[in-house]
Amino acid sequence: MGGAKSSRWWTVWGLLILVWAAFPMLWMVSLSFKDPNSFRSSTPSFLPEKWVWTNYDTVFSDSLFTSALRNSVGIAVLATGLSVIVAMFAAYAIARLDFPGKKLLLSMALAIAMFPQAALVGPLFNLWRNLGIYDTWIGLIIPYLTFALPLSIWTMSAFFRQIPWEMEQAAQVDGATAWQAFRKVIVPLAAPGVFTTAILTFFFCWNEFLLAISLTSTDRARTVPAALSFFTGASQFQSPITAIMAASVVVTIPIIILVLAFQRRIVAGLTAGAVKG
Amino acid sequence: MAVNQTQATAPVQAPRTGKPVVSDRARHERRLGLMLSAPAFGVMVLVTAYPLLYAVLLSLYNYRLTDPNGREFVGLSNYATVLTDPVWWTDFSTTLAITVVSVAVELVLGFGFAFVMYRILHGRGLVRTGILLPYGIITVVSAYIWRYAFQLDSGFINQWFGLGDFNWFGERWSSLFVIILSEIWKTTPFISLLLLAGLVQVPWDLQEAASVDGASARQRLMRVTLPNMKAAIMVALLFRTLDAWRIFDNPYIMTAGANKTETLSFLAYRQNVTLLNLGVGSAVSVLLFITVVIIAFVFVRGFKTDLSQVRGDV
Description:
The structure holds 2 protein chains of 2 kinds. By secondary structure, chain A is mainly α. Chain A has a domain at 63-230: MetI-like fold, CATH 1.10.3720.10. Chain A is 73% helix and 0% strand. Chain A is built from 11 helices and no strands. In chain A, helix 3 crosses helix 8 (178-207). Chain B has a two-stranded antiparallel ribbon with strand order 1-2. Chain B folds into 2 domains: 2-58; 86-310, Orthogonal Bundle (MetI-like fold). Chain B is mostly helical. In chain B, 73% of the residues lie in helices and 4% in strands. Chain B has 15 helices and 2 strands. In chain B, helix 2 crosses helix 14 (278-302), helix 4 packs parallel to helix 8 (172-200) and helix 4 packs antiparallel against helix 11 (230-245). At the A-B interface, helix 1, helix 3, helix 4, helix 5 and helix 6 of A face helix 1, helix 2, helix 4, helix 5 and helix 6 of B.
């Protein structure tokens, strides 16, 4: 079964997976460096004939993109923060406490994880206009926070279940106050789970598109995925393709950084809530 | 309100928890548990259950935002309108095709990836990192990447594969092919990581024992590995199926629904937000919700999956 030869084959397959994952992203980068005025062709090539920065200048001087970037960061960070806080309480209760309604909470989270968001765009569109929060940050933060909750609750409760909570009492027996025991023992043990959950929740909010185009109408709250679909390029005579790719590269960079820095945690988080007990 | 009610009935349920008496501590624990989960409960009910009920109500009216005063009660006729319209059924078949093909391909591909990540010795971390990139990328960005790769005036695909000026977005099935490709690229990582998590939980000694007993690699896979991964496979299948069923971003960006590539989520969006036809749109929303409930029910019943057990919450 083992042996150097078979191990080499698995490495080759691994390389193929890497190519599969990276190739479309290289295409995105390549296209973002093509000349917007001359890249169209009847025989397009993979790499640019000449490399230009124009597209990056275009997107950063376009207020549609810069305001979308600001909205995306603000909305994703706030929604993630709120979702993680609300979910943290619930996950602690699920992992540690015995209370009626625990099963209901988990079933409800499951139901919402499967809920078709498109079924809500009509009513939310109407409700938000009546409440005056259509096309605002809060109008997106509320549904994002809600749809991120199931993921947050599961991931964190799975992490919390693995925490050796006896250590808290042990610390108190050793003379620590309740607060000291919590801060010095429990917080360091729980932090990685909370942090991982926050990354996954951030990915979700950063990615969301349907609600973003349904519940916004201007630069005020339009996030990056929504703005990309409205992008027209530097002028109406120019194809927006290369500029859209430059903007795409920009918004992919934070994802790449997070993935590179926290690969292990993301993998653990993605699978923690789903398969492990 | 709910908190007080449950508290009042709490002692009655006590014997179930296996504790002989309801101590003060247990009562305190219950109250704390309810208090801590109340915000999560509240948010989820307010933002999903309430609007859904509102959609049910709206679906019984003829209500267009372009003519708000013309609102009148029409009973179930919006549902009849939707269900007798060929558009609903075209979108239904599009959604079904995308879901079945992408989930089937992803399951096979995801297995392959999981096995590679399980077995590979050199560069395991690198492969896992690489596989997370499509997972993390914005779906809209993925849609644009693939669209421009196939588009006639910008894409390299036709050049590389000698397809001349074949217009991928000129007809239904080739458009769906590209949509499904983007979907598969973006979501296979998730499925493969779930399967990998299931794979590492298959006890090694079982494989070993089967091997000693003379089982071939294929027999080990079919008789030992796969049956022991049943829970992971079910979770991956259920989640990906329902996720694919909601597909919206890819067709919206790639084809805008042209050539019969509109999906059910897209239809709900178009009726409600583009056409401001809230009556019919809400009927579409409710019907979409019902299809999701049916799929979930079939999975849980048909495959006898107790999801809470899978997750080890019992």
